[in-house]
Amino acid sequence: MRRRLLLAALAATGSAGGASAQPEQSAQPLLQVWRDPSCGCCTGWVDHMRAAGFHVEDNLVASPAPVRRMLGIPPDLLSCHAATVDGYALEGHVPAQAVRRLLAERPAGVRGLAVPAMPTGSPGMEVPGEPDDTYDVVAFDGGDGRRVFMRFRGGRAV
Question: How far apart are CA 97 and CA 112, in angstroms?
Answer without folding.
Answer: 14
